[in-house]
Amino acid sequence: MKENNKRAQIYKLEFCSLDNAVIHNIPSSRFIKVSADWFDIPISTAEFTEVPSADNMIEQELKGIITDTSAINRKELEEVLSDYGILRCTYTNGVQRIIGTDQFPVEVELSENGSPARYELTVNHKSASKAKIYQSF
C-alpha cells in the first residue's frame, strides 16, 4: 500500500464530532490514533488538497459532492455536521487519512447548488500538520 500515490482518489468520507471521538495525537508524528463513532457521508466525488502557507501552517481544502438531495439526507447531514470534528478520507489505494485533530478540528459547510440539484460539502482548514495517517486503537 503506497501512502503517497498521487493517482489515488477519495472513495469514502466519514465524519466524527469531537464529542464522539477519543484522539491520541502526537504533533510530530505522521500518524494519529482515533477511536470514534464514524458517520458515513454519501459522497459521489471528493478532492482534497494541502498547501503550505507563509505562516508555517498547512492550508487544507476538501470539496465533495453529494447527489442524494432528499430531505431526510439533508436533515441528517445538517445535524451531524453542525459540530466541530474530524474527517476520515479513505483512498482507493487503501490509505486512510484524518483531516483535523482535537486541537485543530474541522468545520464542514454544506450548500445546495446545481441543476440537477446536489449538495456541495466544503472544508477550508488551517492545521499545524498535514493530514495524518489513521490508526485505530
How would you sum up this structure, described in words?
This protein is mainly beta and 137 residues long. The protein has one helix and eleven strands. The strands form two sheets. Strands 2-3-11-8-7-1-4 form a seven-stranded mixed β-sheet, with no helix packed on it. The longest helix has 10 residues, at 71-80. The model has no long low-confidence stretch (mean pLDDT 93).
Average pLDDT number: 93
**Radius of gyration over C-alpha positions, nearest whole angstrom:** 15 Å
Helix content: under 10%
Can you list the strand order of the major beta sheet? Answer: 2-3-11-8-7-1-4
The general outline is: globular
Through-space gap between termini: 20 Å
Give the tally of β-strands: 11
**Beta content:** over 45%
Number of helices: 1
Q: What structural class results from the helix and strand content?
A: mainly beta
Main beta sheet: 7 strands, mixed
Which regions are unreliable across 5 or more consecutive residues at pLDDT < 50? none
Element pattern in H and E: EEEEEEHEEEEE
Structure summarized in a few sentences:
The chain contains one helix and eleven strands, in the order E-E-E-E-E-E-H-E-E-E-E-E. It has 137 residues and is mostly beta strands.
